[in-house]
Amino acid sequence: MTTRTKVLQELEKNRNTHISGEKLGTSLDISRAAVHKAIKELREEGYDISAVSNKGYCLSEESDVVSPQGISMHLKKNKGSKILVFKTLNSTNKKAKELAAEGAESGTIVIANEQTEGRGRLGRSFYSPADTGIYLSLIIRPNVKAQKGVLITTFASVAVCRAIESVFGLQCEIKWVNDVLLNKRKICGILTEGITDFETGNLEHVILGIGVNFTTENFPDDIKNKAGSIQNTENKHIIRNKFIAELIDQLADITQEIQNGIFIEEYKNRSAALGKEIEVLGHENIRYGKAIDIDESGGLVISLENGENEILNSGEISIKGDFYD
Ligand code: BTN
User: Of 124, 135, 318, which Cα lies nearest the Cα of 216?
Assistant: First the structure.
């Protein structure tokens, strides 16, 4: 562990309280000059660290730089998870894919403070500005049949809702398949990409990519009427590390969850589509109907206008009457 990391860990443990350079030096067995150098480095990285004579250094409550140390101290499960945080990446899914191909273990998490080519579903991009969002990819080696892959995404959307409820006390809805909505605006998108082992038909690995608009405010024109953020200037009080830790905890049992499928009931209760008139979007063959159920594979059961039922396993829908479409 580098001196910088050790100092950061101590500051994180003592957030919002002052700790003297001498005390830091003694507990970490390093010189005061080394402490000073580490503090300088951390400040340059954006950490809000104040210094008061006779009291020492203090990492402010609001300092919101995402770091493995800052996340780990809030984790309740899997405290040993490998968490990699980057300032900028083209896409965390892309990086996670490379790491998975090199043998990274299940549970490895890749996070970026900014993405320059954030990827969305159906070939779209995902707006990923610096400092205001959470862009996270989890490598999973689930040892389940490829057909279960959809359930990974389905469960992840429930996990995001649970994390938001637990940290902020806010209730979210899920727009099939996996957009998380708050006050009818999309605050989170999920992109799952997997590699199948053709011999066994099992998923070799899956990259579960989650993008959350945390405090993002100025969205590009094409999404500004649909996108929203969890926190706005009035209710901005939670730092990203805390929320990320809760999200990682909620995802900890994902393999068991998709095996037993019990969460589907919760997914249905959180669904923004069930019972509503919907449109199945596609370049050709647009269909209209009513969303009547979610099956055990996460498929959306639709009662079509012509009286037949259709089960949708992929694609996109629009919900009639909602501002969000
Ligand atoms: C969507 O809404 O279409 C899915 C968006 C998924 C975005 C996340 S951000 C982290 C991960 N890395 C990416 O490039 N995409 C996913």
Answer: 135
